[in-house]
Design a protein that fits this description.
Blueprint: E1 2-7, H1 12-22, E2 28-30, E3 40-46, E4 61-64, H2 70-74, E5 84-85, H3 90-108, H4 111-119, E6 135-139, H5 143-154, E7 158-163, E8 173-176, H6 181-187, E9 190-193, H7 207-212, E10 217-221, H8 230-238, E11 242-247, E12 267-269, H9 279-295
Parallel strand pairs: 1-2, 1-3, 3-4, 4-5, 6-7, 6-9, 7-8, 9-10, 10-11, 11-12
Helix pairs in contact: 1-9, 3-5
The structure holds NADPH dihydro-nicotinamide-adenine-dinucleotide phosphate (NDP).
């Protein structure tokens, strides 16, 4: 039994070293070095090159380094019978919650406008919003959405949620399924997308949805670029129905330099940094799943292949 670490960014060595530091008796390889493919039983991955995971004949677990697994379902070379796990981590959830709170408060208090004004030496006070003025609607009441709701409530926000199934979360009216989507949207002055990217949710942030939001709503997408129809957002921000948007994720990352989001005064963009897997916090759960594999026990945080999350 052994682990292979697969990722194409500059964090490959850091994750491999950190895994080895916590599991010195386990054979752990980078996919770029020579390694015995038949020994590998667990692959810890982030945005793997296609035709990589099918090289391991005895693979028993594909572990995402993050909360999202859409990149695994997109790769048709990934063997269909192997369990997939993902990260569910309190640090990831509180980082996300802090980020969304920062975006909301920045929007309320016009902070990006003032930064632009500052660079041009313009002194121009604007009206601002208060927490009591709005209801925040969270699409996706999973590990991240639920923590965000909890923190928003602590900060005196009114919160509504939307999920696939019904659920009871203290202080939050949670709407479920397509039949309740428009009611949920009609209440959401700030709409936060925290859905997984699946066949059902691709392109969900589109004109049809924006039309259902109250006038002058603000849209925050911290889930995946594939949720948003970029042209529809531009249309609804430019026609004044939406007050603006905060976007952390994009169809193509880095966002191409010619993309209109770069220069749009009402669209705040950030380079996919809302919440990044913390090595120290995530490694114990990866190794716990490896131990469970060794002992033939059920894995933690397994993803449903049918639901794609
Ligand atoms: P979870 O799987 O815990 O939660 C997903 C939620 O979405 C659930 O409440 C689920 O409903 C709901 N949902 C799924 N499909 C639908 C649908 N068709 N209609 C309505 N609701 C639906 O995911 P997490 O909270 O852990 O993560 C959410 C996403 O956040 C990740 O998939 C990832 O893409 C993104 N992310 C972005 C980061 C960033 O830095 N920008 C960092 C980390 C994650 P139900 O509860 O009924 O199943």
């Amino acid at each position: 039994m052994a682990i292979v670490v697969i990722r194409q960014d500059n964090k490959l060595d850091a994750w491999k070293k950190a895994l080895i530091a916590k599991a010195s008796n386990t054979a752990i390889y980078s996919y770029l070095e020579d390694h015995p493919k038949e020994e590998i039983t667990m692959a810890c991955i982030w945005k793997q090159p296609s035709e990589t995971l099918n090289l391991y004949p005895n693979l028993k677990c594909i572990a995402s380094f993050g909360a999202g697994v859409d990149f695994i379902f997109k790769d048709h070379s990934v063997p269909k019978h192997i369990p997939i796990t993902r990260v569910v981590d309190p640090v990831l959830a509180s980082d996300m919650s802090e980020f969304v709170l920062a975006l909301i408060l920045g929007f309320f208090k016009n902070l990006t406008t003032y930064k632009t004004d500052q660079l041009q030496k313009i002194w121009s006070p604007q009206e601002y919003k208060r927490i009591s003025d709005v209801t925040v609607g969270i699409m996706g009441m999973g590990a991240l959405g639920e923590k965000l709701a909890e923190d928003l409530i602590k900060n005196r926000f009114r919160v509504v949620g939307w999920a696939k199934s019904k659920k009871i979360i203290p202080g939050v009216e949670v709407y479920a399924g397509n039949s309740q989507k428009n009611t949920f949207l009609s209440l959401s002055n700030i709409l936060v997308c925290l859905l997984p990217l699946t066949k059902e949710t691709t392109g969900i942030l589109n004109s049809k949805l924006f039309r259902e939001l109250p006038k002058q709503s603000y849209v925050i997408n911290v889930a995946r670029g594939g949720h948003l129809v970029d042209e529809d957002l531009l249309e609804y921000v430019n026609n004044g129905h939406l007050a603006g948007a905060g976007l952390d994720v994009f169809h193509e990352e880095p966002l191409p330099v010619e993309h209109p989001f770069w220069n749009h005064p009402k669209i705040q963009i950030t380079p996919h940094v809302a919440s990044v897997s913390d090595i120290d916090s995530v490694i114990p759960q990866l190794l716990e799943n490896y131990r469970r594999l060794e002992e033939g026990l059920p894995l933690m945080n397994e993803v449903s292949r049918e639901k794609e999350y």
